[in-house]
Amino acid sequence: MRATEVAYQILKERGHPLEVHDLLDEVLAAMGLDREPRKVAQIYTELNMDIRFVCRGATEWGLKEWSSHGAARGAVRDRVSHDADEAEETDDEENWQ
Predict the structure, then answer these.
(1) Tens-digit pLDDT profile for residues 10-34
(2) How many helices (H) and strands (E) does the chain have?
(3) Which residues share a beta bridge with 25?
(4) Whole-angstrom Cα distance, residue 8 to residue 34?
(5) Would you list the domain boundaries of the chain?
(6) What gap in Å lies between CA 71 and CA 54, rounded to an integer?
(7) Among 38, 40, 75, 81, which is least packed by CB within 10 angstroms?
(8) 56 in Cβ contact with 67 (< 8 Å)
(9) CA 53: distance to chain centroid?
(10) More confident residue, 67 or 85
(11) Is the Cβ–Cβ distance between 24 and 40 less than 8 Å?
(12) What is the pLDDT of residue 57?
Protein backbone atom coordinates (compact mmCIF):
# COMPACT_ATOMS: atom_id res chain seq x y z
CA MET A 1 0.00 0.00 0.00
CA ARG A 2 1.24 3.51 -0.83
CA ALA A 3 2.24 5.84 1.99
CA THR A 4 -0.45 8.33 1.00
CA GLU A 5 -3.12 5.64 1.29
CA VAL A 6 -1.85 4.74 4.76
CA ALA A 7 -1.79 8.43 5.77
CA TYR A 8 -5.31 8.89 4.45
CA GLN A 9 -6.59 5.93 6.47
CA ILE A 10 -4.85 7.14 9.64
CA LEU A 11 -6.33 10.63 9.36
CA LYS A 12 -9.76 9.28 8.41
CA GLU A 13 -9.79 7.01 11.49
CA ARG A 14 -8.59 9.80 13.80
CA GLY A 15 -11.03 12.36 12.44
CA HIS A 16 -8.75 15.31 13.17
CA PRO A 17 -5.47 16.80 11.92
CA LEU A 18 -2.16 15.45 13.22
CA GLU A 19 1.23 17.03 13.68
CA VAL A 20 3.27 16.17 10.60
CA HIS A 21 5.93 14.30 12.58
CA ASP A 22 3.31 12.18 14.35
CA LEU A 23 1.59 11.42 11.06
CA LEU A 24 4.87 10.45 9.40
CA ASP A 25 5.82 8.25 12.36
CA GLU A 26 2.46 6.46 12.21
CA VAL A 27 2.72 5.94 8.45
CA LEU A 28 6.23 4.54 8.74
CA ALA A 29 5.23 2.25 11.63
CA ALA A 30 2.17 0.98 9.74
CA MET A 31 4.35 0.23 6.73
CA GLY A 32 7.06 -1.43 8.85
CA LEU A 33 9.69 1.10 7.78
CA ASP A 34 12.48 2.80 9.73
CA ARG A 35 12.56 6.57 10.09
CA GLU A 36 15.19 7.27 7.46
CA PRO A 37 15.50 10.93 6.35
CA ARG A 38 15.19 10.00 2.69
CA LYS A 39 11.99 8.00 3.27
CA VAL A 40 10.50 10.74 5.47
CA ALA A 41 11.21 13.33 2.76
CA GLN A 42 9.66 11.10 0.11
CA ILE A 43 6.45 10.59 2.10
CA TYR A 44 6.24 14.30 2.96
CA THR A 45 6.59 15.16 -0.74
CA GLU A 46 3.88 12.66 -1.64
CA LEU A 47 1.54 14.23 0.94
CA ASN A 48 2.20 17.67 -0.57
CA MET A 49 1.38 16.43 -4.05
CA ASP A 50 -1.77 14.51 -3.13
CA ILE A 51 -4.82 16.80 -3.32
CA ARG A 52 -6.61 14.88 -0.57
CA PHE A 53 -4.28 16.35 2.07
CA VAL A 54 -3.97 19.89 3.33
CA CYS A 55 -1.57 21.60 5.70
CA ARG A 56 -3.64 23.05 8.52
CA GLY A 57 -1.85 25.67 10.52
CA ALA A 58 1.89 25.62 10.96
CA THR A 59 2.63 21.89 11.23
CA GLU A 60 -0.64 19.98 11.20
CA TRP A 61 -1.91 17.91 8.30
CA GLY A 62 -5.50 16.95 7.71
CA LEU A 63 -7.86 15.96 4.95
CA LYS A 64 -9.11 18.49 2.44
CA GLU A 65 -12.59 16.95 2.70
CA TRP A 66 -12.83 18.25 6.28
CA SER A 67 -12.84 21.85 5.09
CA SER A 68 -16.35 23.27 5.21
CA HIS A 69 -15.76 25.08 1.91
CA GLY A 70 -13.67 22.38 0.23
CA ALA A 71 -10.95 24.99 -0.18
CA ALA A 72 -7.26 24.23 0.09
CA ARG A 73 -6.87 26.30 3.24
CA GLY A 74 -7.36 24.63 6.57
CA ALA A 75 -9.98 25.04 9.25
CA VAL A 76 -7.49 26.73 11.56
CA ARG A 77 -6.83 29.50 9.07
CA ASP A 78 -10.58 29.78 8.34
CA ARG A 79 -11.30 30.28 12.04
CA VAL A 80 -8.51 32.85 12.47
CA SER A 81 -9.72 34.75 9.42
CA HIS A 82 -13.32 34.65 10.66
CA ASP A 83 -12.28 35.91 14.12
CA ALA A 84 -10.28 38.72 12.53
CA ASP A 85 -13.26 39.71 10.35
CA GLU A 86 -15.53 39.81 13.41
CA ALA A 87 -13.02 41.94 15.32
CA GLU A 88 -12.81 44.33 12.36
CA GLU A 89 -16.61 44.64 12.22
CA THR A 90 -16.71 45.38 15.96
CA ASP A 91 -14.04 48.05 15.57
CA ASP A 92 -15.97 49.64 12.69
CA GLU A 93 -19.19 49.68 14.75
CA GLU A 94 -17.43 51.29 17.72
CA ASN A 95 -15.94 54.01 15.47
CA TRP A 96 -19.41 54.96 14.18
CA GLN A 97 -20.93 55.41 17.63
Answers:
(1) 999 999 999 999 999 999 999 999 9
(2) 4, 3
(3) none
(4) 20
(5) 3-96
(6) 9
(7) 38
(8) no
(9) 6
(10) 67
(11) yes
(12) 81
CATH topology of domain 3-96: Arc Repressor Mutant, subunit A (1.10.10)
Report the residue count for the chain: 97
Total-model pTM: 0.67
Phi-psi region of 71 (alpha: psi -120 to 50; beta: other; left: phi over 0): beta
Residue range 70-96, pLDDT digits in tens: 444 444 444 444 445 555 554 545 555
Residue 56 has a pLDDT of: 84
Question: Would you tell me how many other CB atoms lie within 10 Å of the CB of residue 3?
Answer: 21
Strands 60-63 and 53-56: antiparallel
